[in-house]
Amino acid sequence: NALSGLEADIAMKGSVNLVRRDLNMEAVVAPEISATVGVAAAFAVNPIVGAAVFAASKVLGPLWSKVSILRYHISGPLDDPQINEVLRQPRKEKA
Asked: Which residues form the YhdP central domain (predicted)?
């Protein structure tokens, strides 16, 4: 089965400590207005990013066309990270 989510550009920076199994990262999401796309490749490359893309698409679907940038702080254990929204910048209407 393929998973699908809303298309977005995602940039993440920070650290993942595999010994302690925790992370401390910042994520910036720039939603695209276009239709949904598969995120199975994101899961194959990085399951954490794939899960974040899929979850974001389900939670943010209704807001997707109204937001230009979202910023999150992601921290805590790998199996139960805390995701906190830091910034939501509205999309500017074209004149």
From this structure: 3-83
